[in-house]
Write a structure and sequence with these properties.
about 270 residues, alpha/beta, 2 domains, eight-stranded parallel beta barrel, about 40% helix
Length: about 270
Amino acid sequence: MKTPDKVTIPRFAKMKREGKPIACLTAYDWTLARLLDEAGIDLILVGDSASMVFAGHDNTLPITMDQMVYHTQVVSRAVKRALVVADMPFLSFQVSAEEALRNGGRLLKEGGAEAVKLEGGEQAAETVRRMTGVGIPVMGHLGLTPQSIRALGGYQLQGKGEKEAEAMKKDAKILEEAGAFAIVLEKIPASLAQSITSSISIPTIGIGAGPHCDGQVLVTHDLLGLYEEFTPKFVRRYAELGRTIREAVSRYADDVRAADFPGPQESF
């Protein structure tokens, strides 16, 4: 049974109106999702970032629909309060609106997600319109869109020039009009994120977009110090669990090799 303070899409809209910041994080497994939910996170994103921090790929492109459905299933099984949003992976929505409907529907019906997220602005608007029209809530994603990393040429700051900034503001309005309930703004100037946030009625969720968005999201493995390959400028590390885990495992291995584990207290 869901908790009385369950986060819903209408509640998201209310949080923006009331100026209450929205806290979001990623999860890909039952254990971590349960911990985030119990800690009071408002939105848990089953991100295609699992391709990197869970599966070890260099980018988000390799993860499949079946894999995203599986990750979404185990996360949604753990969550009672937070809104569960699942990323639509590369080529799951770009080919046609019909294919997007089928795949988005799978994430809700099979995965248990309450909404999906997809990348792109004006070019994705008709897909967003079709999906929301049949009851699939959609979160947009503008700025640095990792599925377009080959075309963007890397993980550079987006929206720096006036022309690019104006196009992004236009895209945000188009997504809002198409029915998106929120938009992720990734790695753009804080001033541009502030302008977009004030110009639309739906919440913006920033990641490397400064303090003026309606909410913030980070990859949980980054803030916990579990993904150590690189740390983006916009990440604040709240723990160094990679180091803690290595130390604990090393102590365990030493105890086994010294015949100190198991001892009397761990034996029957």
